[in-house]
Amino acid sequence: MDDNKQKYRDLCEIEKIIPIFSKDWWLDAVCGDDNWDVVIIEKDGEIVASWPFYIKKSGFNVIAMPRLTQAMGIWISYPNGQKYTKRLAYEKKIFTDLIGRLPQVDMFSQNFHYSITNWLPLYWSGFQQATRYTYVIEDITDLVKVYNNFQSNIKTDIKKAQRTVNCYFDSDIDKFFNTNRLTFERQRMQMPYDIKFLKRLDAACSKRECRKIFYAQDEQGRIHAAIYIIWDEQSAYYLMGGGHPELRSSGATSLLLWKAIQFAATVTKKFDFEGSMIEPVERFFRAFGAVQKPYFSISKANRKMRVCQAVRDLGKALLKG
């Protein structure tokens, strides 16, 4: 599929509506150049649909989500003026064709961008779906309106933090990683990436000038919080964050997100909080006046994988018992 990959790279250069998480350079950074591929459909020498995917190296043949990648999925170029009923029929044809071009794997698991609202052709082809949610401020051009939509607790946090910390930009990725790590340590969770991975991704984003790192620091030099955002033509995304576990009540994260939204308004149209399915995090993001956006988590496993999963689940149950 090398020829397909080069064609897809060319497409990503000209098609601005393809989300950042599906761009070729992003996939190079988070997957490695040799660990992702793409299936495409062409008509009259032009690509009308594409579906990139990450090939995870394991004991099984698996298509999965790369680290720090919210969503991928199918991109379609629709005919101009297409009616809704024709659009659905067109989607069915495109989806079915793309599915037939995917490599045979033991397990497929991929999150689709929330702009994809029709998964029926996948259902008819034996795929399963679970609904997940992100939260998005749809229009960040009117910042007064955006701020007025914040709930009172967010406004209180912002005002409190303004009396305590100073906010600034800094491109030092090691400093961000150390702050980001504190949040995982507080929750006794293993970090899903290391500094080498993060530096590779940061270098790719920095080269394309589509990332910003925000810090909140007090007069004693203590970093209260840090957040990392990225953006494309359509939206900014809250990719990562972290903070000092003993300084969480300062309101610094709320202030940084407000600063990030203000900055994002100068480079794009929307602000995507990237989740979350975790109840306290969902409540926090919702308080910024963001709109709930459902997106599809699509999966399919062959018989061999289903048997292995059943044995694994049984083993866990026996250990608990």
Automatic annotation (TrEMBL):
| Identification of the protein by name | Acetyltransferase (GNAT) domain-containing protein
**Coiled-coil annotated spans:** none
Q: Which GO terms describe its molecular function?
A: transferase activity
Please provide the record's keywords in A-Z order.
Transferase
Q: Where do the BioF2-like acetyltransferase domain residues begin and end?
A: 150-265
Matches recorded under InterPro entries: Acyl_CoA_acyltransferase (IPR016181), BioF2-like_GNAT_dom (IPR038740)
Transferase in keyword set = yes
Keyword Transferase, does the record have it? yes
